[in-house]
Design brief:
- This protein is mostly helical.
- It has two domains: 135 residues, Four Helix Bundle (Hemerythrin (Met), subunit A) (Up-down Bundle), CATH 1.20.120; 114 residues, de novo design (two linked rop proteins), CATH 1.20.1440.
- It contains nine helices and no strands.
- It is flat.
- The chain starts with a helix and ends with a helix.
């Protein structure tokens, strides 16, 4: 289990280094997304390990990169939507900003801190292993993942559940299942339901954010009417996806 965990951490660091190089040149529109996906995978690997010494600093460093890049990724998604709708001036202004901002992520303090923590982590795990603190590693991870599932079930059972919370809980459960498939052995049908629910909640969340920005950014005014209709549809689709998830998982 320890060997598997270290191999996973090293592989993720290699992927992050590749993403850093791609983000630095700002010519790859998917580079930032891939960086965020890799950081998200890392956080999913780390979350069930929170009880172990030394995990929290690495998790906090990964969280810092996520917080730094979230506004930029949100802008990328919006710019792509605007371009698709033919609002090229509005899209262009955002692409111009992103071309300047994204390379700064590659040399940011947040990313440098993350790499420093990652470099130290495998040696720290070996030290904990020598001290006998990882004998129950499988049980520690399993216990934490069970807790995440219980939290999701409880949240879904609440009348008028908070979609923001559900979106985050679903992401955590799904990514943990992907990070530790030998522990959380969910059927493919369940993973598919989780993915669909996350996608529909993400679409709803996008519309919510766009409408909030439209009140402050004049060039988004042509989109408001469509987004107002779109968010109603997104809410309905999200609720249907959550209903199917409830029936399929619980």
């Amino acid at each position: 289990m320890v060997d598997h965990l270290i191999a996973e951490i090293v592989a993720l660091e290699v992927r992050l280094l590749a993403c850093q190089a791609r983000v630095a040149v700002s010519t790859d529109s998917e580079a930032l997304h891939d960086l965020r996906t890799t950081v998200r995978r890392l956080r999913s690997v780390l979350r069930p390990l929170r009880e172990l010494p030394g995990v929290e600093p690495l998790e906090e460093a990964a969280k810092g990169v996520g917080q730094l890049t979230t506004p930029l990724r949100d802008m990328q998604v919006l710019a792509a939507f605007l371009a698709e709708k033919g609002l090229h001036d509005a899209a262009g202004r955002r692409h111009y900003y992103l071309d300047e901002a994204c390379p700064k992520v590659a040399r940011s303090e947040a990313l440098i801190r993350l790499f420093a923590r990652l470099d130290q982590f495998p040696a720290m795990l070996r030290m904990l292993e020598r001290q006998g603190l990882l004998r129950d590693l499988h049980k520690i991870i399993e216990k934490r993942m069970d807790k995440q599932w219980r939290k999701l079930r409880s949240a879904m059972a609440e009348p008028g559940h908070d979609r923001h919370d559900l979106r985050l809980l679903i992401k955590r459960v799904r990514y943990a299942a992907e990070a530790y498939p030998h522990i959380d052995q969910q059927p493919k049908s369940v993973l598919k339901l989780l993915k669909t629910a996350q996608s529909e909640l993400g679409n709803w969340h996008d519309h919510l954010q766009w409408l909030a920005q439209a009140g402050q950014q004049v060039d988004l005014a042509p989109c408001i009417a469509g987004w107002q209709i779109g968010i109603v549809r997104a809410e309905r689709k999200a609720e249907k996806a959550l209903e199917r998830l409830g029936k399929g998982c619980f």
